[in-house]
Amino acid sequence: MTVKQRTELRDTQNSKKPQRNQSLERGLAVLEAFGPPRAEIGIRELGRLLGLNKSIVHRLARTLTERGFLEQNPETLRYAVGPRAFEVGQRYSLASGPAEAALPVLQRLADHSQLNAYLGVLRGPTVVYLLTLQSSGPIVIRAKPGSPAHVHSTALGKVLLAAHRDPAALLGTKPLPRLTPSTVTDPARVLAEVKTVRAQGHAISDEENLPGVWAVGAPVVDRTGKVVAAISGACPRYQVTKARVPEIVGAVRAAALQISKSLGAPAALSRQPVATPARTRPCS
Q: Domain boundary at 81, 111, 130, which?
């Protein structure tokens, strides 16, 4: 094949590819650059992160700021995610079937059981929070809708991991991030716990994601019987006595069941027993 023929073939193949808008892709890349640990970013740093010219980044940031997707700190001149981005993200969250069904249920869980309540889904190897509801308890929620979390250290993450078709592939073989002294970082140990989660129908995070925080997670199931999300309820570890564990587990599982029923889950779910969690310890 001649050079001309190869060129013509390449041009033909390229013409079949869907056309993409470069400016839009760059603008989205700017938004995706923000997040822990970069709450505020300057133009120069954005350019370095994205591999773009400073003037291009400045125009993108200015446009995004004018539309409310970014906002500029008048003192540092650095940029942060703006309210418009949060508003659009909330639209996705509330348009999601599980989120719409879960919102009133989790609000009651937060109000009546004094548990910070969360709804999350699996996106690749990461949990993404769709809802985070603050109770009147002493734990302050720092996670916001759209923020990521780890599957191996959070209660709802373990539930989603247990529902995954291949949790071993999701975890990999390398040591997992250690968030607290209690975080299980050995993938083999996490996989062993996954079996327990599948058997009992809920998961426990005992100071594994945040120091001093105890949480229980349960699955949200749709009309096909598929786990489409998970919820969790969290409270201070010192409030979790041996006698109160079944009460908290029962409240979270009942909330998950109510959400699942709203999504048309099979009635057989209502007959599942509430088991005693495997990884708890009484407060001293």
A: 81
